[in-house]
Amino acid sequence: MDEHAHRVYSRGSASWPQNALMDDRTLRIGVLLAAHVIFLSAAALRIIRGQRRHLLRSRAAWWLQYYPPLVWLPFVVAYVVPLTIELAYGLQLAGVVLAVGSALFAAWAMWSLGRSYGIRMDLFEGHRLVTEGPYRVVRHPMYLGILSFHIGATFAMQSLLLLAATALYVVPFTAVRIVAEERVLLQGFGEAYGAFVRRVPTLVPFAR
């Protein structure tokens, strides 16, 4: 096997690609800006939704209710406390592409929900079951986008801390949130959501 296939580049060394368009700092900023696509979408949709009457209140624990902000804690910590291992420049670029694409996919899912989007798992007056757009591919496209964003950010930032946090915190946290959220959706939408569950996979596209 060509020894260059597994070369790990050192910044500032002769082996670092001379035509590299972006340094580590630029890549990190790119990932942070991608995350803001999701943050700003959440803020905008909260304003658009305004105050509405509750139809169904979830009784899940508070930390499950506030999954959307809490799931980002490892990313924030990893961004300000770098614990890194050097990766090939191509892997970093692939990570940035994955992070940006994932953020856009998650934002698409959020905007597809429109006024039905919310941080908590409650159902509000006018809440509708969305099955079009990214929801034709998976039942939880926003969560898929968040998971894949963290994977991309791990490579882009070469972060051992984010790798561990994604595996030990983000993935199980997301899985528990999905289980709790689906209970609420089944209670609120009944057989309509049951048919959606039978037709569309949870997180892995084309799994059925």
Describe the protein.
The chain is mostly helical and 208 residues long. It has a single domain (22-199), classed as Four Helix Bundle (Hemerythrin (Met), subunit A), CATH 1.20.120. It has helices spanning 24-49, 62-65, 67-70, 73-80, 89-113, 141-156, 160-189, 191-199; strands spanning 54-56, 123-124. A two-stranded antiparallel sheet has the order 1-2. It is elongated, with a radius of gyration of 19 Å.
Provide a short characterization of the protein structure.
This protein is mostly helical and 208 residues long. Helix content is 59%, strand content 2%. The protein has helices at residues 24-49, 62-65, 67-70, 73-80, 89-113, 141-156, 160-189, 191-199, and strands at 54-56, 123-124.
- Total number of beta strands: 2
Assign the CATH architecture. Up-down Bundle
Biggest pleated-sheet summary: 2 strands, antiparallel
- Quickly count the helices: 8
Distance between the termini: 38 Å
Number of domains: 1
Shape: elongated
Which sequence of SSEs, written as H and E, runs from N to C?
HEHHHHEHHH
Radius of gyration: 19 Å
Classify the helix fraction into a percent range: 55-70%
Which structural class fits the helix and strand makeup?
mainly alpha
Strands of the widest sheet, in order across it, are 1-2
Strand content: under 5%
CATH class group: Mainly Alpha
Unreliable stretches covering 5 or more consecutive residues: 1-20
**What fold name goes in the CATH topology slot?**
Four Helix Bundle (Hemerythrin (Met), subunit A)
Chain-averaged pLDDT: 87
